[in-house]
Write a structure and sequence with these properties.
mainly alpha; 95% helix
Length: 62
């Protein structure tokens, strides 16, 4: 009785820990992507906006 209960409890507990670890890894990856977008994407967007008038003048003449 007790070994069967312990085995099923242990298996359930291991599964819960595995799922929690997977969730933590997914969250960590998502945070890393968000950081990359924030610290690389935003400055690139600002640079593109600032460079747009110069690029337009070079392409279309002016």
């Amino acid at each position: 009785m007790i070994p069967g209960f312990y085995d099923s409890w242990r298996q359930k507990r291991d599964q819960e820990l595995s799922l929690a670890e997977q969730r933590a890894l997914r969250q960590q990856k998502q945070e890393m992507i968000d950081d990359i977008i924030r610290y690389v994407g935003v400055p690139l967007l600002v640079a593109a906006v600032l460079a747009a008038p110069t690029v337009c003048r070079a392409i279309f003449g002016g």
